[in-house]
Design a protein that fits this description.
Blueprint lengths: L2 H13 L12 H24 L5 E5 L7 E4 L3 E4 L5 E5 L6 H19 L4 E2 H7 L1 H4 L2 H15 L8 E2 L5 E4 L2 E3 L5 E3 L7 E2 L8 E4 L5 E4 L2 H9 L2 H4 L4 E4 L6 H14 L3 E4 L4 H12 L8 H4 L5 E4 L2 H6 L7 E2 L2 H12 L1 H4 L2 H13 L1 E2 L12 H13 L4
């Protein structure tokens, strides 16, 4: 392993702090009873309101407003301590259907937790697709319920189908006892849909590389990147990561305590994807402690690399959406608080052009895996 990587790993181990919050329940059974109790309190309040001759309401924290967020550099984007709420009324014609769906989903979740069984969001949707209308309607309600009850979504016994893939020096046990080997050099393993129940993680990896795109991930596999340079783990959420991909990165970091690098496009969308892994998102801020990995380092493709490696001919002009996204990113606290990141964003703002990771192929077919990444990792080319 290179001197730079050894130094970084030593610093991580020496300065390792407990970033997450752990819930101290005496057993899994107590956790289930706690969720059931929280649901029962919601229903009891509704019944009491009806008995008083009033229309019941649900108070939901607003999850998609920056005004409801706060930033902690050791954790990421968190829900404000006193967030603004939206009132879902049962006596409002425009809200009555959504109110009824909330009660329906609460009932389904209660049954799952009570019987200690699990279901995917897709399973729940197909329980009555006409009732829910779209999968997204159900997904939003599940997340709102998780936020309202102040419990992680996995505690509701609701799972999401994973879209991410993982490969490299890693093996572990799934909840059902299945042993998963990720060592194949040509094929990746789907990220588990029940990451929290993974056990017996074994790896001699020196670092984790989070890859934005599936195409780049496949290129690394084809070039046997995980064995050619150092033993490592590579993972992709295939664009904007799903919850399971984010949970997996965090779990691996918690377990292995090794550096985590991000390889994304040099454009506003790529930067935002990296920030979701590192600092989280507004919509899931209430679960930030288990979803974010604040130690993620920006390995590439850095905007400053564009001129350094002479790939100007492969640049793509910004769209209006790119312009808007970059202006939004520039104002966020996790950008404005880091001078090195601000410089890179400033380069993009100045040139108004973006570069994909694949642009490095214009230099040489294997430039990414045999020159760019090895040199970055060897000489500390990250921020």
């Amino acid at each position: 392993m290179s001197e730079q990587l050894q130094k970084l790993q030593a610093e991580l181990l020496q300065n390792l702090q407990t970033v997450g919050e752990t819930s101290a329940s005496s057993s899994e059974e107590n956790g289930r009873l706690d969720v059931l109790t929280r649901i029962e309190k919601v229903i009891q309040k509704i019944v009491h309101t009806i008995s008083q001759g009033e229309a019941p309401v649900l108070q939901l924290s607003t999850r998609c407003s920056w005004s409801n967020m706060r930033f902690d550099k050791s954790v990421g984007i968190l829900m404000s301590l006193n967030p603004k709420v939206t009132t879902l009324r049962s006596d409002c014609p425009s809200a009555i259907n959504r109110f009824a769906l909330f009660l329906k989903v609460l009932s389904m979740i209660y049954r799952l937790v009570q019987t200690d069984s699990y279901a995917t969001k897709r399973d729940m949707y197909y329980n009555d697709p006409q009732l829910f209308g779209t999968q997204r309607n159900l997904d939003l309600i599940v997340d709102d319920i998780s936020c309202m009850l102040q419990v992680p979504r996995r505690s509701l016994h609701v799972l999401a189908t994973s879209k991410g893939f993982i490969s490299g020096d890693l093996c572990y046990l799934e909840a059902d006892g299945t042993r998963v080997e990720c060592h194949s050099t040509s094929m990746a393993v789907p990220v588990s849909s029940n990451v929290s129940e993974i056990t017996n993680i074994v790896s001699s990896a020196k670092f984790i590389l989070v890859v934005e795109k599936d195409a780049t991930f496949q290129r690394l596999l084809d070039d046997e990147f995980c064995t050619r340079l150092h033993p490592c783990i590579i993972i992709t959420g295939k664009g904007m990561p799903d919850v399971n991909s984010r949970l997996m990165v965090r779990k691996l970091w918690d377990t292995l305590h090794i550096p985590v690098f991000a390889l994304v496009d040099a454009d506003p969308h790529g930067i935002e994807i990296m920030c979701v892994y590192k600092y989280g998102s507004m919509s899931m801020a209430f679960e930030a402690y288990s979803l974010t990995t604040p130690t993620v380092l920006w390995l590439g493709l850095l905007p400053s690399d564009i001129e350094k490696f002479g790939v100007q001919d492969a640049l793509i002009p910004f769209t209006k959406r790119d312009e808007s996204k970059l202006m939004s990113l520039k104002k966020r606290p996790y950008i404005s608080g880091q001078p090195a990141w601000e410089r890179e964003v400033g380069i993009l703002m100045k040139c108004r052009k973006k570069a994909e990771i694949q642009s490095l192929a214009s230099i040489a077919p294997h430039f990414l895996t045999r020159v760019y990444l090895p040199n970055k990792l060897r000489y500390g080319g990250w921020i």
